Protein backbone atom coordinates (compact mmCIF):
# COMPACT_ATOMS: atom_id res chain seq x y z
CA UNK A 1 0.00 0.00 0.00
CA UNK A 2 1.20 3.48 -0.80
CA UNK A 3 1.76 5.86 2.08
CA UNK A 4 0.17 8.54 -0.12
CA UNK A 5 -3.56 8.96 -0.68
CA UNK A 6 -4.74 8.76 -4.28
CA UNK A 7 -8.21 7.43 -3.46
CA UNK A 8 -10.05 9.98 -1.30
CA UNK A 9 -12.28 12.17 -3.51
CA UNK A 10 -11.66 15.87 -2.91
CA UNK A 11 -14.32 18.50 -3.52
CA UNK A 12 -12.59 20.91 -5.89
CA UNK A 13 -15.66 23.09 -6.35
CA UNK A 14 -15.18 24.75 -2.95
CA UNK A 15 -12.45 26.91 -4.49
CA UNK A 16 -12.21 28.44 -7.99
CA UNK A 17 -11.26 25.61 -10.33
CA UNK A 18 -11.10 25.78 -14.12
CA UNK A 19 -11.60 22.07 -14.39
CA UNK A 20 -14.50 21.67 -11.99
CA UNK A 21 -16.44 24.93 -12.41
CA UNK A 22 -16.60 25.13 -16.20
CA UNK A 23 -19.60 22.80 -16.40
CA UNK A 24 -22.81 22.00 -14.54
CA UNK A 25 -22.44 20.08 -11.29
CA UNK A 26 -23.79 16.85 -12.79
CA UNK A 27 -20.89 16.73 -15.29
CA UNK A 28 -17.74 14.71 -14.58
CA UNK A 29 -14.87 16.83 -15.97
CA UNK A 30 -12.03 14.78 -17.46
CA UNK A 31 -10.63 17.59 -19.57
CA UNK A 32 -8.13 20.30 -18.58
CA UNK A 33 -4.72 18.83 -17.73
CA UNK A 34 -4.45 19.03 -13.99
CA UNK A 35 -5.04 16.10 -11.64
CA UNK A 36 -7.51 15.63 -8.81
CA UNK A 37 -4.94 14.15 -6.42
CA UNK A 38 -3.76 15.90 -3.28
CA UNK A 39 -0.23 17.19 -3.73
CA UNK A 40 2.71 15.56 -2.01
CA UNK A 41 2.86 16.16 1.75
CA UNK A 42 6.38 17.55 1.39
CA UNK A 43 4.94 20.32 -0.82
CA UNK A 44 2.06 21.04 1.53
CA UNK A 45 4.51 21.31 4.43
CA UNK A 46 6.83 23.62 2.51
CA UNK A 47 3.97 25.93 1.56
CA UNK A 48 2.69 26.00 5.14
CA UNK A 49 6.17 26.88 6.40
CA UNK A 50 6.46 29.71 3.90
CA UNK A 51 3.00 31.02 4.86
CA UNK A 52 4.20 31.23 8.44
CA UNK A 53 6.33 34.19 7.37
CA UNK A 54 3.69 36.84 6.62
CA UNK A 55 5.54 38.90 4.01
CA UNK A 56 5.11 38.13 0.31
CA UNK A 57 7.12 40.77 -1.48
CA UNK A 58 9.07 40.62 -4.71
CA UNK A 59 11.20 37.51 -4.98
CA UNK A 60 13.72 35.75 -7.17
CA UNK A 61 14.83 32.12 -7.55
CA UNK A 62 17.20 31.24 -4.74
CA UNK A 63 20.22 28.96 -4.78
CA UNK A 64 18.30 26.12 -3.15
CA UNK A 65 15.76 26.08 -5.98
CA UNK A 66 18.25 26.26 -8.84
CA UNK A 67 20.42 23.59 -7.23
CA UNK A 68 17.42 21.33 -6.68
CA UNK A 69 16.65 21.46 -10.41
CA UNK A 70 20.32 20.82 -11.26
CA UNK A 71 20.32 17.78 -8.98
CA UNK A 72 17.02 16.52 -10.40
CA UNK A 73 18.28 16.81 -13.98
CA UNK A 74 21.48 14.94 -13.28
CA UNK A 75 19.98 12.20 -11.11
CA UNK A 76 16.91 11.55 -13.28
CA UNK A 77 18.16 12.28 -16.79
CA UNK A 78 21.94 12.12 -16.58
CA UNK A 79 22.02 15.65 -17.98
CA UNK A 80 24.24 17.99 -15.95
CA UNK A 81 22.87 21.53 -16.12
CA UNK A 82 24.01 24.70 -14.38
CA UNK A 83 22.20 27.24 -12.29
CA UNK A 84 23.13 29.99 -14.76
CA UNK A 85 21.27 28.16 -17.52
CA UNK A 86 17.96 28.61 -15.72
CA UNK A 87 15.45 31.34 -16.46
CA UNK A 88 12.42 30.98 -14.20
CA UNK A 89 9.12 32.39 -15.38
CA UNK A 90 5.35 31.99 -14.75
CA UNK A 91 4.56 28.99 -16.89
CA UNK A 92 5.30 27.18 -20.12
CA UNK A 93 2.68 29.02 -22.20
CA UNK A 94 4.25 32.42 -21.41
CA UNK A 95 7.61 30.88 -22.29
CA UNK A 96 6.36 29.82 -25.72
CA UNK A 97 5.23 33.37 -26.41
CA UNK A 98 8.48 34.87 -25.12
CA UNK A 99 10.41 32.53 -27.41
CA UNK A 100 8.41 33.64 -30.43
CA UNK A 101 8.79 37.34 -29.61
CA UNK A 102 12.46 37.13 -28.66
CA UNK A 103 13.78 34.75 -31.30
CA UNK A 104 11.79 35.63 -34.42
CA UNK A 105 10.69 38.70 -36.36
CA UNK A 106 7.15 39.68 -37.37
CA UNK A 107 6.00 37.48 -40.24
CA UNK A 108 8.52 34.72 -39.57
CA UNK A 109 7.23 31.15 -39.56
CA UNK A 110 6.58 29.33 -36.29
CA UNK A 111 6.20 25.59 -36.89
CA UNK A 112 4.59 22.93 -34.73
CA UNK A 113 3.39 19.36 -35.06
CA UNK A 114 -0.29 18.45 -34.66
CA UNK A 115 -2.26 17.27 -32.81
CA UNK A 116 -0.88 19.56 -30.15
CA UNK A 117 -1.78 21.25 -26.90
CA UNK A 118 -4.00 24.18 -28.05
CA UNK A 119 -1.85 27.15 -26.90
CA UNK A 120 0.85 26.02 -29.34
CA UNK A 121 -1.53 26.74 -32.20
CA UNK A 122 -2.10 30.34 -31.12
CA UNK A 123 1.47 31.48 -30.41
CA UNK A 124 2.18 32.65 -33.94
CA UNK A 125 -1.06 34.62 -34.29
CA UNK A 126 -0.68 36.13 -30.82
CA UNK A 127 2.83 37.36 -31.60
CA UNK A 128 2.37 38.50 -35.20
CA UNK A 129 4.14 35.54 -36.77
CA UNK A 130 3.05 33.02 -39.41
CA UNK A 131 1.57 29.78 -38.11
CA UNK A 132 2.84 26.60 -39.74
CA UNK A 133 1.97 23.03 -38.84
CA UNK A 134 2.60 19.47 -39.91
CA UNK A 135 0.40 16.52 -38.94
CA UNK A 136 1.78 13.43 -37.25
CA UNK A 137 1.39 10.01 -38.80
CA UNK A 138 -1.45 8.06 -37.27
CA UNK A 139 -1.01 4.57 -35.81
CA UNK A 140 -1.65 1.67 -38.17
CA UNK A 141 -2.05 -2.08 -37.82
CA UNK A 142 1.62 -2.46 -38.75
CA UNK A 143 2.86 0.37 -36.54
CA UNK A 144 0.73 1.07 -33.46
CA UNK A 145 2.55 4.29 -32.51
CA UNK A 146 1.96 7.93 -33.32
CA UNK A 147 5.00 8.96 -35.38
CA UNK A 148 6.57 12.10 -36.75
CA UNK A 149 5.81 12.50 -40.44
CA UNK A 150 9.02 13.93 -41.87
CA UNK A 151 7.55 14.33 -45.34
CA UNK A 152 4.82 16.50 -43.82
CA UNK A 153 7.43 18.50 -41.91
CA UNK A 154 9.42 19.12 -45.09
CA UNK A 155 6.24 20.22 -46.87
CA UNK A 156 5.34 22.64 -44.07
CA UNK A 157 8.70 24.34 -43.53
CA UNK A 158 9.62 27.39 -45.62
CA UNK A 159 12.67 29.66 -45.92
CA UNK A 160 10.90 31.99 -43.46
CA UNK A 161 10.53 29.36 -40.74
CA UNK A 162 12.62 30.29 -37.71
CA UNK A 163 11.20 28.47 -34.70
CA UNK A 164 9.95 24.97 -33.95
CA UNK A 165 7.60 24.59 -30.99
CA UNK A 166 8.22 21.02 -29.89
CA UNK A 167 6.45 18.86 -27.28
CA UNK A 168 8.30 15.86 -25.82
CA UNK A 169 6.74 13.71 -24.32
CA UNK A 170 3.88 14.57 -26.56
CA UNK A 171 0.60 16.11 -25.46
CA UNK A 172 -2.04 14.85 -26.34
CA UNK A 173 -0.94 11.46 -27.71
CA UNK A 174 1.35 10.51 -24.83
CA UNK A 175 4.05 9.52 -27.31
CA UNK A 176 7.64 9.17 -26.08
CA UNK A 177 9.77 9.74 -29.16
CA UNK A 178 12.61 7.28 -29.65
CA UNK A 179 16.26 7.97 -30.40
CA UNK A 180 15.84 7.37 -34.13
CA UNK A 181 13.03 9.91 -34.41
CA UNK A 182 14.94 12.48 -32.35
CA UNK A 183 17.99 11.99 -34.57
CA UNK A 184 15.95 12.59 -37.71
CA UNK A 185 14.32 15.59 -36.07
CA UNK A 186 17.74 17.02 -35.22
CA UNK A 187 18.80 16.56 -38.83
CA UNK A 188 15.69 18.45 -39.92
CA UNK A 189 16.33 21.26 -37.42
CA UNK A 190 19.95 21.69 -38.51
CA UNK A 191 19.14 21.48 -42.21
CA UNK A 192 16.61 24.31 -41.93
CA UNK A 193 18.59 26.28 -39.30
CA UNK A 194 15.73 26.36 -36.84
CA UNK A 195 15.60 27.32 -33.20
CA UNK A 196 13.62 25.03 -30.88
CA UNK A 197 11.44 25.62 -27.86
CA UNK A 198 11.08 22.14 -26.37
CA UNK A 199 8.14 21.75 -23.97
CA UNK A 200 9.13 18.78 -21.81
CA UNK A 201 6.51 19.41 -19.15
CA UNK A 202 5.43 15.77 -18.87
CA UNK A 203 8.98 14.42 -18.77
CA UNK A 204 8.64 13.10 -15.21
CA UNK A 205 5.52 11.10 -16.09
CA UNK A 206 6.94 8.32 -18.27
CA UNK A 207 4.70 5.28 -17.85
CA UNK A 208 6.61 2.79 -20.02
CA UNK A 209 10.25 1.98 -20.51
CA UNK A 210 13.22 4.05 -19.46
CA UNK A 211 13.40 7.59 -18.14
CA UNK A 212 12.87 10.62 -20.32
CA UNK A 213 15.74 11.81 -22.49
CA UNK A 214 15.80 15.60 -22.92
CA UNK A 215 16.13 16.66 -26.55
CA UNK A 216 19.47 18.34 -25.86
CA UNK A 217 20.74 15.26 -24.01
CA UNK A 218 19.72 13.03 -26.94
CA UNK A 219 21.16 15.43 -29.53
CA UNK A 220 23.89 17.65 -27.98
CA UNK A 221 24.45 19.30 -31.37
CA UNK A 222 21.19 21.18 -30.74
CA UNK A 223 22.41 22.83 -27.52
CA UNK A 224 23.02 26.18 -29.22
CA UNK A 225 19.51 26.09 -30.74
CA UNK A 226 17.29 24.79 -27.96
CA UNK A 227 15.29 26.15 -25.03
CA UNK A 228 14.09 23.34 -22.76
CA UNK A 229 10.96 24.06 -20.74
CA UNK A 230 10.46 22.23 -17.45
CA UNK A 231 8.11 22.64 -14.51
CA UNK A 232 6.83 20.79 -11.46
CA UNK A 233 3.30 21.76 -12.44
CA UNK A 234 2.06 18.62 -14.21
CA UNK A 235 4.03 15.99 -12.32
CA UNK A 236 3.33 17.37 -8.86
CA UNK A 237 -0.11 18.89 -9.59
CA UNK A 238 0.76 22.50 -8.77
CA UNK A 239 -0.20 24.14 -12.08
CA UNK A 240 -2.13 26.89 -10.27
CA UNK A 241 1.11 28.13 -8.69
CA UNK A 242 2.40 29.23 -12.12
CA UNK A 243 6.11 28.58 -12.09
CA UNK A 244 8.32 27.04 -14.78
CA UNK A 245 11.92 27.11 -15.91
CA UNK A 246 13.58 27.61 -19.28
CA UNK A 247 16.89 25.74 -19.34
CA UNK A 248 19.20 27.26 -21.97
CA UNK A 249 22.80 26.04 -22.29
CA UNK A 250 23.93 28.51 -24.95
CA UNK A 251 24.86 31.96 -23.54
CA UNK A 252 23.84 33.93 -26.63
CA UNK A 253 20.47 32.19 -26.94
CA UNK A 254 19.92 32.56 -23.20
CA UNK A 255 20.58 36.28 -23.38
CA UNK A 256 18.09 36.71 -26.22
CA UNK A 257 15.44 34.83 -24.29
CA UNK A 258 16.10 36.75 -21.07
CA UNK A 259 15.88 40.03 -22.92
CA UNK A 260 12.45 38.94 -24.16
CA UNK A 261 11.36 38.41 -20.55
CA UNK A 262 12.12 41.99 -19.54
CA UNK A 263 9.02 43.88 -18.51
CA UNK A 264 6.90 40.73 -18.54
CA UNK A 265 8.15 39.16 -15.33
CA UNK A 266 9.17 41.80 -12.77
CA UNK A 267 9.06 39.18 -10.01
CA UNK A 268 8.35 35.51 -9.43
CA UNK A 269 5.64 33.44 -7.78
CA UNK A 270 6.91 32.82 -4.26
CA UNK A 271 4.60 29.88 -3.64
CA UNK A 272 5.26 28.35 -7.03
CA UNK A 273 8.98 28.37 -6.43
CA UNK A 274 8.53 27.05 -2.89
CA UNK A 275 6.51 24.15 -4.28
CA UNK A 276 9.04 23.45 -7.05
CA UNK A 277 11.95 23.41 -4.61
CA UNK A 278 10.12 20.98 -2.32
CA UNK A 279 9.07 18.77 -5.24
CA UNK A 280 12.52 18.48 -6.75
CA UNK A 281 14.28 18.00 -3.42
CA UNK A 282 11.83 15.70 -1.62
CA UNK A 283 9.00 14.58 -3.88
CA UNK A 284 10.41 11.44 -5.50
CA UNK A 285 8.55 8.96 -3.30
CA UNK A 286 5.23 10.62 -4.06
CA UNK A 287 6.05 10.69 -7.79
CA UNK A 288 6.73 6.96 -7.85
CA UNK A 289 3.43 6.28 -6.09
CA UNK A 290 1.66 8.56 -8.56
CA UNK A 291 3.14 6.68 -11.52
CA UNK A 292 1.82 3.41 -10.13
CA UNK A 293 -1.66 4.93 -9.80
CA UNK A 294 -1.56 6.38 -13.32
CA UNK A 295 -0.49 3.03 -14.78
CA UNK A 296 -3.48 1.36 -13.10
CA UNK A 297 -5.81 4.07 -14.40
CA UNK A 298 -4.37 3.79 -17.89
CA UNK A 299 -4.89 0.02 -17.91
CA UNK A 300 -8.55 0.54 -17.05
CA UNK A 301 -9.06 3.03 -19.87
CA UNK A 302 -7.29 0.86 -22.43
CA UNK A 303 -9.48 -2.10 -21.40
CA UNK A 304 -12.69 -0.06 -21.65
CA UNK A 305 -11.77 1.63 -24.95
CA UNK A 306 -11.08 -1.77 -26.53
CA UNK A 307 -14.78 -2.60 -25.96
CA UNK A 308 -16.11 0.56 -27.63
CA UNK A 309 -16.91 -0.07 -31.31
CA UNK A 310 -15.38 2.48 -33.64
CA UNK A 311 -13.09 3.97 -30.95
CA UNK A 312 -9.33 3.74 -31.25
CA UNK A 313 -6.85 4.44 -28.48
CA UNK A 314 -3.10 3.99 -28.51
CA UNK A 315 -2.04 3.54 -24.90
CA UNK A 316 -0.08 6.65 -23.89
CA UNK A 317 3.54 5.97 -23.00
CA UNK A 318 3.61 9.07 -20.78
CA UNK A 319 1.32 11.68 -19.19
CA UNK A 320 -2.12 11.23 -17.60
CA UNK A 321 -3.90 11.91 -20.90
CA UNK A 322 -5.59 9.53 -23.36
CA UNK A 323 -6.14 10.57 -26.99
CA UNK A 324 -9.33 8.97 -28.28
CA UNK A 325 -10.14 8.61 -31.98
CA UNK A 326 -13.95 8.90 -32.12
CA UNK A 327 -14.36 9.50 -35.84
CA UNK A 328 -15.97 6.09 -36.44
CA UNK A 329 -17.90 5.86 -33.17
CA UNK A 330 -21.18 7.08 -34.65
CA UNK A 331 -21.33 10.20 -32.50
CA UNK A 332 -21.86 12.74 -35.28
CA UNK A 333 -19.80 15.75 -36.25
CA UNK A 334 -18.97 16.74 -32.67
CA UNK A 335 -18.31 13.58 -30.61
CA UNK A 336 -17.09 15.55 -27.62
CA UNK A 337 -20.31 17.58 -27.49
CA UNK A 338 -22.49 14.49 -27.73
CA UNK A 339 -20.59 12.85 -24.86
CA UNK A 340 -21.04 16.00 -22.81
CA UNK A 341 -24.73 16.40 -23.61
CA UNK A 342 -25.80 12.78 -23.20
CA UNK A 343 -23.21 11.05 -20.99
CA UNK A 344 -22.42 14.18 -18.93
CA UNK A 345 -18.68 13.63 -19.22
CA UNK A 346 -16.51 16.56 -20.32
CA UNK A 347 -13.47 15.82 -22.47
CA UNK A 348 -11.24 18.15 -24.48
CA UNK A 349 -12.36 18.59 -28.09
CA UNK A 350 -9.81 17.29 -30.58
CA UNK A 351 -10.62 20.19 -32.92
CA UNK A 352 -8.85 22.50 -30.47
CA UNK A 353 -5.71 20.41 -30.98
CA UNK A 354 -6.03 20.62 -34.76
CA UNK A 355 -7.69 17.19 -35.14
CA UNK A 356 -11.52 17.19 -35.25
CA UNK A 357 -13.20 13.92 -34.35
CA UNK A 358 -10.79 13.17 -31.51
CA UNK A 359 -11.08 13.87 -27.80
CA UNK A 360 -8.57 14.02 -24.94
CA UNK A 361 -9.47 12.28 -21.70
CA UNK A 362 -7.67 13.14 -18.45
CA UNK A 363 -7.27 10.03 -16.28
CA UNK A 364 -5.44 11.82 -13.48
CA UNK A 365 -8.29 11.33 -11.04
CA UNK A 366 -9.41 8.99 -8.28
CA UNK A 367 -10.33 5.50 -9.43
CA UNK A 368 -13.90 5.87 -8.17
CA UNK A 369 -14.51 8.95 -10.32
CA UNK A 370 -12.78 7.42 -13.32
CA UNK A 371 -14.93 4.29 -13.14
CA UNK A 372 -18.08 6.41 -12.90
CA UNK A 373 -17.04 8.47 -15.93
CA UNK A 374 -16.23 5.38 -17.98
CA UNK A 375 -19.55 3.80 -16.99
CA UNK A 376 -21.29 6.91 -18.30
CA UNK A 377 -19.34 6.71 -21.56
CA UNK A 378 -20.37 3.06 -21.88
CA UNK A 379 -24.00 4.17 -22.15
CA UNK A 380 -23.21 5.83 -25.49
CA UNK A 381 -20.27 3.85 -26.80
CA UNK A 382 -21.30 0.26 -26.06
CA UNK A 383 -23.89 -1.49 -28.26
CA UNK A 384 -27.29 -1.39 -26.61
Automatic annotation (TrEMBL):
Keywords for this protein: Lyase, Pyridoxal phosphate
Domain Aminotransferase class I/classII large intervals: 26-377
Annotated Pfam families: Aminotran_1_2
Cofactor: pyridoxal 5'-phosphate
Gene Ontology molecular function: cysteine-S-conjugate beta-lyase activity
E.C. numbers: 4.4.1.13
Family: Belongs to the class-II pyridoxal-phosphate-dependent aminotransferase family. MalY/PatB cystathionine beta-lyase subfamily.
The protein, known as: cysteine-S-conjugate beta-lyase
Source lineage: Bacteria, Pseudomonadati, Pseudomonadota, Gammaproteobacteria, Oceanospirillales
Amino acid sequence: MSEFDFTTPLDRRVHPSTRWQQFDEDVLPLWVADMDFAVAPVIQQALAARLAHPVFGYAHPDAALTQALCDWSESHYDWPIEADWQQWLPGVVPALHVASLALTDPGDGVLTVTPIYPPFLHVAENTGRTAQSAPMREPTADDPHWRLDFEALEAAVTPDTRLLLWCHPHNPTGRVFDAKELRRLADFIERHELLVCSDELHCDLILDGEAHTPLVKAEPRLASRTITLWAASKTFNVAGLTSACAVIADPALRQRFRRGCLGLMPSHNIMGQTAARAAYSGGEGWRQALLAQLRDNRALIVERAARWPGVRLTAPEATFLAWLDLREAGLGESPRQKLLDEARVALNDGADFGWPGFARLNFGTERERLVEALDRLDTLLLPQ
